[in-house]
Amino acid sequence: MIKQHTVSAFEDEMQFLTHKIAEMGGHAEKMIGQSVKALTTGDVDLARAVIKDDMRLDEGQREIDDKAVLLIAQRQPMANDLREVFANIRISSDLERIGDMAKGIAKRVSSVSEYSHGVKFARGIEHLSELASAQLKEVLDCYGTRSVDEVNNIIERDEEIDAMYTSLFRELLTYMMEDPRNITTCTHLLFCAKNIERIGDHATNIAEATYYMVKGQKLDAARPNEDKTHKVSLD
Amino acid sequence: MNDESKTPKVKMAGKGVEVFYGAKQAINGIDLEVYERQVTALIGPSGCGKSTYLRCLNRMNDTIDICKVKGLLTLDGEDIYDPNIDVVELRARVGMVFQKPNPFPKSIYENITYGPRIHGLAKSKADLDVIVEKSLRGAGLWEEVKDRLLEPGTGLSGGQQQRLCIARAIAVQPEVILMDEPCSALDPIATAIVEELIGELREQYTIVIVTHSMQQAARVSQRTAMFHLGDLVEVDDTETIFTNPSEKRTQDYITGRFG
Ligand SMILES: Nc1ncnc2c1ncn2[C@@H]1O[C@H](COP(=O)(O)OP(=O)(O)OP(=O)(O)O)[C@@H](O)[C@H]1O
Ligand SMILES: [Mg+2]
User: Which UniProt keywords apply (chain A) (predicted)?
Assistant: First the structure.
């Protein structure tokens, strides 16, 4: 266990950042789940709620930035404290971006739900999002417990997300080729899928920041997460 | 990590250094190397032995009757506690700047020329004039005092006095400069000036500095040694010490979790 700071206010400020990240993380997870649920059930009200909810992550990030800047100015954190403050700033910005990704999905719900096959086509996205959500959750658990033994395994699983994203990409292309009337909806869904793939990337960023925070060293495993759909062709 | 690509030369080294004040042991057997043309910072909680160790490096401890030093301390590989060593010459090679600026109650000019005179570094008044200007320039004080060289050094501001003491230390062309909390009595501007100066002095001299400011150690030094209760806890690249120290005691100390 790490000892408490002699100055208790310093301890409280560090705790504040940790709790805020946990809160933002929980919120981001919820937004992903709800945005995809809205998409796969055509629930426009739920989508609207998600869009509105994104504000909370924006606020959270701003609050962490403000508090972290003030803490650096007042306390000049060193060593593990310094790494923690730095990691918190990075992680909150990733969480804020994840919120944006979820919001992006929610925004497309009304267009997708208007189309007769929209909800059916969206089904593949559900599974993709489950993988990304699970990854994010595990990464946030690592952050919460400060244990990074599993980080490499979690990051490696990003490949699964990428593979599934690529196959979803093909699937949506197939629908488009089958019937040009599918194009609008499938294009929206492609963006949704891309957003989820991006969420996986942000989760990887968070894992790396957490690793650095705990270990004081960069995680040097090559990042597997790469969008490979640029290689997908029509034949 | 370090800005030194090649391994720097060891300028001063301690091996199994123990220091006693009467029966009380203040340093418990320390091995510590100081590299040439680097700033080495000594940090650690009050009473851990930083000043005691620093004073071993130019045998300032000799002036304390009850103080006994054991082990080996070398300058360029030579045992500085060898009975044949000329202590006055040693202190010219290893100069010292103290926490409180302590100019002699004499003119600025004489503060600088005192050392060169007793060490016979100057043959004429002209030689001394050159040394005075060079030293004051080296300490970044020349422009401020060049028109008042005959005024007493004690009439300068605290920050100026400290730079006068640095000028006095470099006037005898030392190889190593020891500084014991040189900025603790200075305001932030004077501190910044002295820190800037340390960065410049480093090109010519080897510097060992004791400081209670972690930020100062992080800013001015290339290597940092952490002391605790008379032990050397660890010594490493400054960057590593302040971002990812190996020892828990170091981490607790620099992050304000001690005791
Ligand atoms: N002249 C002395 N006579 C007796 N004991 C001394 C003397 N000088 C230092 N000590 C003791 O030796 C130990 C180390 O003291 P030292 O002054 O080297 O500590 P320090 O690390 O420089 O502390 P500070 O940060 O407070 O300056 C302390 O326990 C101190 O009480
Ligand atoms: Mg001291």
Answer: Cytoplasm, Phosphate transport, Transport
